[in-house]
TrEMBL record:
Residues 1-26, 40-62 are annotated as: Disordered. The gene is GSK3A. ATP binds at residue 95. Belongs to the protein kinase superfamily. CMGC Ser/Thr protein kinase family. GSK-3 subfamily. Residues 10-26 have a biased composition (Gly residues). It catalyses: L-threonyl-[tau protein] + ATP = O-phospho-L-threonyl-[tau protein] + ADP + H(+); L-seryl-[tau protein] + ATP = O-phospho-L-seryl-[tau protein] + ADP + H(+). Pfam families: Pkinase. Residues 65-349 form the Protein kinase domain. InterPro entries: GSK-3, Kinase-like_dom_sf, Prot_kinase_dom, Protein_kinase_ATP_BS, Ser/Thr_kinase_AS, STKc_GSK3. This is [tau protein] kinase. GO terms for cellular component: axon; cytosol; mitochondrion; nucleus.
Length: 376
């Protein structure tokens, strides 16, 4: 490699190409190549940090990793992929700016969660930023290669519907993860296909991104502007601040409907537009339903629209059990939505309980029934 680098530095092209800067484009090519070489060298260098394990006692230890590359970013910060030096396993490192005045809620929640359908916090550590006094929190998490969003988009682009067995396997695992976090008093508050990680070979699903999650306490208000728009429960659109974990159930119903339809079921451009899309399917909520969502809204007048029959919302060959399950999740009254465990027991998932059920690739189904007393 060093010999090749020297030859490149002298102007010899890689793989015996023409040398010597004969065209201006070659200079640009060399600059790009040197940039890439520097980047590659940087990504393969081993970084060692003192990190605290995600679970268990606070016993900081040295953790080394390499092959660092950016795989995502957003308003929250940056996500990197890296390889742990000791095991060779890939991990995701989520790096967020830490406000020193507050404890990081995502870290606190992730440290108490331990479930096969939730992305695991392996370690966390702090690093300094470029500016003085800037501190970053780094969460070292399981790396899972795909998302339900990308898997569904793959089928949509190919003008195909996602095989129903995948819909069952993914949704069942999502409900399992919700049963667990809700049993811990945690509401995710941002359930959407992009936050459902999946391994395309094993079909194991892991819920990720607890950046909006919160321990809900009855009587304590919560912000209503939470959750990504297409998946927002109607009580949030109505501005409720005393909502419950049932907002996650509504979002899960939206994900199920989207997998069956091949597109979002309620694609609103704004809060009001979102409500219009919901009313077009569920009909105008009754005064009682509005009171259950947010008592402050009962005097509002809405145009009277009849509910659209659920069977007409979906394509002709959609399984009736799937449509029925959707209708039990997407209810205006939060308390009448199915609980996550009730959803797991729904007849739509009966195929998963058959002893010879397999994935389309011939593999066994992922572990689905290894419950423990606390819903793990």
């Amino acid at each position: 490699w060093k010999r090749r680098e020297k030859s490149l530095a002298r102007g010899g092209g890689p793989r015996g190409g023409a040398g010597g800067g004969q065209a201006r484009g070659e200079g640009v090519g060399m600059a790009r190549l040197n940039e890439k070489l520097a980047r590659d060298a940087n990504s393969s260098k081993v970084t060692t940090v003192v990190a605290t394990p995600g679970q268990g006692p606070d016993r900081p230890q040295e953790v080394s990793y390499s092959d660092i590359k950016v795989i995502g970013n957003g308003s929250f910060g940056v996500v990197y992929q890296a390889r742990l030096a000791d095991s060779g396993e890939l991990v995701a490192i989520k790096k967020v700016l830490q406000d020193k005045r507050f404890k990081n809620r995502e870290l606190q929640i992730m440290r108490k969660l331990d479930h096969c359908n939730i992305v695991r916090l392996r370690y966390f550590f702090y690093s300094s930023g470029e500016k003085k006094d800037e501190v970053y929190l780094n969460l070292v998490l399981d790396y899972v290669p795909e998302t339900v969003y990308r898997v569904a988009r793959h089928f949509t682009k190919a003008k195909q519907t996602i095989p129903v067995i995948y819909v069952k396997v993914y949704m069942y695992q999502l409900f399992r993860s919700l049963a667990y976090i809700h049993s811990q008093g945690v509401c995710h508050r941002d359930i959407k296909p992009q936050n459902l990680l999946v391994d395309p070979d094993t079909a194991v699903l892991k819920l990720c991104d607890f950046g909006s999650a919160k321990q809900l306490v009855r009587g304590e208000p919560n912000v209503s502007y939470i959750c990504s728009r297409y998946y927002r429960a109607p009580e949030l659109i109505f501005g409720a601040t005393d909502y419950t974990s049932n907002i996650d159930i509504w979002s899960a119903g939206c994900v199920l409907a989207e997998l069956l339809l091949g597109q979002p079921i309620f694609p609103g451009d704004s809060g009001v537009d979102q409500l219009v899309e919901i009313i077009k399917v569920l009909g105008t909520p009754t005064r009682e339903q509005i009171r259950e969502m947010n008592p402050n809204y009962t005097e509002f007048k809405f145009p009277q629209i009849k509910a659209h029959p659920w069977i007409k919302v979906f394509k002709p060959r959609t399984p009736l059990e799937a449509i029925s399950l959707c209708s039990r999740l997407l209810e205006y009254t939060p308390a009448t939505r199915l609980s996550p465990l009730e959803a797991c027991a729904n007849s739509f998932f009966d195929e998963l309980r058959e002893p010879n059920a397999r994935l389309p690739n011939g593999r066994d189904l992922p572990p689905l029934f290894n419950f423990s007393p606390v819903g793990k």
